[in-house]
Amino acid sequence: MKAEVLSIGDELLIGQVINSNAAWIGEQLARIGISVGRMTTVGDSLDDILQAFERARSECAVVIVTGGLGPTHDDRTREAVLRFFNTGLRLDEDALTDIERFFAERKRPLSDRNRDQAMVPALARTLRNMRGTAPGYHISDDRGQFFVLPGVPTEMKGMMERDILPLLASAAPTPRAVITVLSTGIPESTLADTLEGIDTLLPDTAVAFLPSLHGVRLRLTATRDTADAARHAVDTLADFVLTRVGEHVYGRDTESMEQVLVALLRAQGKLLAVAESCTGGLITDRLTNVPGSSDCLERGVVAYSNRCKSDMLGVPPLLIAEHGAVSREVAEAMAEGVRLRAGTDIGISTTGVAGPSGGSDEKPVGLVWIGISSPDGTEARAFHFGTDRLTVKARAAQAALDAVRRLLLHLPLFSTQ
Amino acid sequence: MKAEVLSIGDELLIGQVINSNAAWIGEQLARIGISVGRMTTVGDSLDDILQAFERARSECAVVIVTGGLGPTHDDRTREAVLRFFNTGLRLDEDALTDIERFFAERKRPLSDRNRDQAMVPALARTLRNMRGTAPGYHISDDRGQFFVLPGVPTEMKGMMERDILPLLASAAPTPRAVITVLSTGIPESTLADTLEGIDTLLPDTAVAFLPSLHGVRLRLTATRDTADAARHAVDTLADFVLTRVGEHVYGRDTESMEQVLVALLRAQGKLLAVAESCTGGLITDRLTNVPGSSDCLERGVVAYSNRCKSDMLGVPPLLIAEHGAVSREVAEAMAEGVRLRAGTDIGISTTGVAGPSGGSDEKPVGLVWIGISSPDGTEARAFHFGTDRLTVKARAAQAALDAVRRLLLHLPLFSTQ
Question: For the whole model, what pTM was predicted?
Answer without folding.
Answer: 0.86
